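Hey, quick one: can you model this chain's 3D structure?
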Amino acid sequence: MTRKVSRSLASTCLLSTLSLGALTPLLHAAPAHACGGFFCNNVQPVNQAAERIIFSQAEDGTVTAVIQIQYSGEADSFAWVLPVTGTPEVRVSSNLAFQRLQASTNPQYTLTTRIEGSCRDVDSRSSPSTGVFLSSDALSRPDSGSGVSVLSEGSVGPYDFIVINVDPMTPRASDSAVAWLQANDFQIDESAADRLEPYLATGMNLMAFRLTKGNSTGSIRPVEITFGRGQASIPIRPTAVAAVADMGVMVWVLGAHRAVPINYASLELNEALINWLNPTLNYNSVVTEAANQAGGQGFVTELAGTSASLSQVIYPSFEREAWTELTRGGAGAWTGREGELFNSALRRFAQFDGLREALRATIALPSPEVTYEQILSCPNCYYDFAVTDIPGFEPATFLAALEENVIEPMERTSAFFDARPYVTRLYTTMSAEEMTRDPAFDFNADLPELSNVHTAERVIECSPSINQFEAPWRVSLASGETLRGRGNTWPLSTTGTVPANRTIRRYETTGEGEVIVDNAATIGAAILENNARIPGPPPSAATGGGGDCSASHRGSATWIAGLFGALAIAFTRRRR
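Sure thing. Here's the predicted structure for all 576 residues.
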C-alpha cells in the first residue's frame, strides 16, 4: 500500500517507515518508505510502502543489512541519514532482488473446494483448488569549529555518501551534525536533530546519502551496508515524528537458525479471521489488528526455513549463464560489434538495476536535454545502436560497468542465501505512537520451521433447491476448527470482537517461548456462535425430505452436532 505524508508536516521531513535496519549496538539505520531516516523536501508528498530489509549474519558475527529505499520527490531534495557505529562498508544493491524475494516468500493461502450433494445450477461434485499469493579508522577530517569529523566518504551507484562523527564534548551533538550536513548540501531539516540526538548521545556516527549530481529519482536503488559484529536491530524511534498509521515493516533475517524478535512479541495469527476466499482483501488488516492487540510491538513470522533455494529465485542459473555467454572471449570479442553488445545486454538484463550507471560510464549524453533514462527507453532514438561499430563506445568499459552495477549486486544478494543456511521472514505494521522501542532480532535453534504455504478445505453443502453461490459451506482449518459460512461472504471480520492473534509469545534465544496470551478458547467460542447462525442446506421439496438431498441434510445436521461435541472436547483439552 502506498501512502503520502501530509503537507502539514514540516517543509522538510525525516522519512522512514521503519527507520532502518540496524545492528545493536553496531548498526542503527533508517531505511526508507516512510518518514524516519529520509529527509525530504515536502514540496512533493512522499510515497510510502512497506519497509524492506535483509539482515545477514555471518559466522563471525558480522552483520550486513540490505535496505530498500523508496522515495518520490525532487532529486536534489533527497537525503537519507542513518545512525551507525564505526565506518561501515557500502555497496549498491538491487530493487529486482527484493521484488523476486518478496514474491517468492509471500504467504500463500490455498483453499481446496469440493461440492457435497447437488445444487440447482451446478451438478459437478468438485471444483479445482485455488491458491492466492499475498500479495535489505579511515581518514579523519575535522571540520574547524563544528566538532564534526569526516570518517569516510565516497560514491556508490547513484549516491554520494559520507560518514561523520561529532565530538562527544559538543553540546547537543545532533544540532552540530544537522548544521554541518546542511552546510555541505544535504537537504536535512532542523527538526531532525531531536530524533537523532538519542543515537549521537551514545557515541554513534551518522551516515548520510544524497543523489550524485545529474541523477534522477528513477536511479534510486537499495544499499548494502556491512557493519561489524553485532545484533540485527531497527532504530525505529526517529520514524515516529512523521510516520503514517500502520506502516508495513518486512524483514528477512539470514543466519544459522530461525530468527526471533527478542524485545517484541511474536504473533500467531487467527487464520479463521483471514478471508480464505480472497486473502488479499484482508490479510494486511489481520496483521495490523494482531499487532495492535500486542500493543503495536509484535511481528508475525511468515516463513522460517532453509534459504538455499532462494538463491536461484534472486539470480537464477539461466541469467548467470547469459552473463557468462556475454563475457566469453572478453571485451576483445566485441570489437567492431559494439552495437550488438549493447543490444544483447539490454535484451538480457532489461529488468535489472544499474543499466543506467553502466551506460553513463560508457558514453556521453548527446545533449544536456537528454537523460540516460530516455536513451534506455529508446536507444536508437539517440544513437545508432543498430550498427555494429559505434565510435567512442568501448566494450571493455561497458562490460566492466555492467559487472559492477548490474551483475554483482544480484550475485552478492543471492550469495547471502547460499552462505547462510536459514532464513526467517517477519512482518508487522506500526504507527507513530507505537514506535517507542527499537526492534532487535536474535536466533533460536530450538524452534521448528514454519511454511509460508497454508491450506484449508471448503465443502459446499448443496441442495437442488438452492444455487451454489448461495449454498452454505464449511471450511476445515489447520487448527482443527471448522468454520461455517454462506455464499461468497467470509463470516468473520477484523471489525468484530474476534481476536486477530491465536497466541502471543515472547521468545528468547533458547526454548519454545512463553505464551503470554492464549485466545484459543475465545476463538473457539466465536466460531461456535457463528456456526450456529448458519444452518445446513434445506431438504429437497421434491422428495419431501428424503432421497439424496435429505440424506445430505441429515448428514449436515449430524455433522454439526458432532462438531459441537468435538470442539467442546478440544476446548476442554486446551484449557487443561
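One thing worth noting: Residues 1-48, 122-131, 135-142, 541-576 have pLDDT under 50 and may be disordered.
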